[in-house]
């Protein structure tokens, strides 16, 4: 469904008299097969939106090639546009228009008849829990309802491939889980291929068949969430103590332990076998009279994968919640 090779985008940056270049995306290769839900993860400024904007024909690449939904991105951008849906971070609904009318006129742009557009629109409203809101103005909807309306807008012309840019940012946990179900249902009931960006590791874990991690414009890891987690190897020990530096020193002495990270009174360290290491460490700390207030041994999470491949925690650059998706006229 998506096959990109060497996709790149450089932006010119001017500061006063000096001009420089920002390599937003630097030679990305990616493949997404039909029917997959693929998550595109990365910290702020990693190049996710730029890649998505190139793949949806909204931004010209400075280098590289791609086919999207069977059409060549560079020579047949109109073909690409006809076959895809794109839901931007900002959404695409005008706040004053009636939701149903907006949906129908959007589908009309794709050559869908008014009768078909209305029928598809009503079906999408039912599937996306928007029943009863056909006449409602988006400005009078909740954030979750508006986000689901944005998604309906991206689907009303029945694309085989849909791009969702941070579909759940700013939604409360229940609205997020609800939207995950809808996205899963798209694939299950319609065979839709979904390519989405997200800042939420739990979202990628719960929803995506495969995850691609981008950092500084390059793909640094890819695989199923389980594959990525097992690639980290070992278990993570976390000990909380007011004597964190001493705990870190003793953790480093555990067999096979990697360098311990100290963050306030929390010390974390990767070890080959968490259970045995924890018992040995607690005995050692007890003998040394070092009190601890919390201990944990756990399997690696996607954030640990992130930390391993990028040297940073995705949580370090946690995205600020965007409470209200602003209305913006996009395609
Ligand atoms: N129009 C532009 N002009 C100049 N630089 C840009 C432009 N668009 C993006 N960039 C830069 O390119 C890099 C990648 O930006 P991009 O928006 O693709 O990242 P992102 O991973 O989507 O980030 P976020 O998660 O914050 O949305 C950043 O350094 C950004 O500042």
Layout of helices and strands, plus pairs?
Layout: E1 2-15, E2 18-32, E3 37-41, H1 48-55, E4 63-68, E5 71-72, H2 77-83, E6 84-87, H3 99-109, H4 114-127, H5 143-155, E7 161-165, H6 173-190, E8 193-198, H7 201-207, E9 210-215, E10 218-223, H8 225-232, E11 235-240, H9 244-252, E12 261-263, E13 266-271, H10 274-287, E14 294-298, H11 302-310
Task: Describe the 3D structure.
With 331 residues, the chain is an alpha/beta fold. The chain has two domains: 228 residues, P-loop containing nucleotide triphosphate hydrolases (Rossmann fold), CATH 3.40.50.300; 66 residues, Lrp/AsnC effector binding domain/regulation of amino acid metabolism (RAM) domain (Alpha-Beta Plaits). The strands form three sheets. A six-stranded mixed beta sheet has the order 6-7-8-3-9-10, sandwiched between helices. Strands 2-1-4-5 form a four-stranded antiparallel beta sheet. Helix 3 crosses helix 4 and helix 8 packs across helix 11. The C terminus is likely disordered. The structure holds adenosine-5'-triphosphate. Adenosine-5'-triphosphate (ATP) binds next to strand 1, strand 2 and helix 1.
